[in-house]
Specification:
about 220 residues; alpha/beta; five-stranded mixed sheet
């Protein structure tokens, strides 16, 4: 039964159907697992005079993936990705833009309200395709981050290895203070700035101690 037929059915039953902006499908509501006629019969039997309806419409924005967190400016076009470029199956749903994909009815009562859901097959299929596309993007981002992390660990490992080699650098060993040693390391080891200052100071201190230990033998 489509929306107009639904409205007609409620008018025939003398029940006011009121469109709302959202319906919270929470544990405080019971979803009727029957057809619309049965739902209307239940509402009439319970003498509920008003039913609320929430419409879901397919929008152009549903085809867009916003790359960023909730604080991202949605007007930043560089962060907007057309999901059709990820899953071409989504293109066939563009003919439905502006159409109602589903609607939910809610009749208020105590202790729990009554809800009824009606959705088009194409709308459910659209969201499955969309989820597939967004999952693909998210998985790609995770894999990309893992690769970046691996590369970062490799770079830091190489820098740390070069730092450890200073124990055999005679010029470094003759420096009078750890502050001078730190300056020497920063001057001679590329990429050392990627190591945080506290970690770097601790490493220089360990190397200096190792040099002193070698000299005492």
């Amino acid at each position: 039964m489509d929306l107009e037929e639904t409205r007609a059915a409620f008018r025939a039953a003398n029940i006011l159907l009121v469109e709302v902006e959202d319906i919270d499908d929470s544990p405080q509501s019971l979803r009727i697992a029957a057809d619309l006629a049965d739902y209307i019969s239940v509402v009439k039997a319970l003498h509920i005079p008003v039913v609320f309806i929430y419409l879901e419409t397919l929008e152009m924005e549903d085809f867009i993936y916003l790359d960023g967190d909730a604080e991202t400016d949605e007007e930043d076009e560089s962060r907007r990705l057309d999901l059709c470029s990820i899953n071409v199956e989504l293109k066939r749903f563009k003919k439905h833009i502006g159409e109602i994909g589903s609607f939910t009815l809610y009749a208020a009562m105590q202790p729990k309200g009554l809800t009824y859901f009606n959705g088009n097959d194409w709308y459910a299929e659209f969201w499955k395709c969309r989820e597939s596309a967004t999952n693909s993007i998210d998985q790609g981002k995770v894999e990309s981050q893992v690769n970046l992390d691996d590369e970062e660990r490799k770079r830091l490992g190489e820098v740390t290895a070069r730092l450890s080699e200073l124990v055999n650098d005679t010029k470094f060993a003759r420096l009078p203070t750890q502050k001078a040693m730190l300056a020497y390391a920063k001057l001679h080891i590329a990429g050392i700035s990627e190591i945080d200052n506290a970690t770097l100071k601790a490493a220089i201190s360990d190397i200096a101690a190792h040099i002193l230990a070698k000299g005492s033998k």
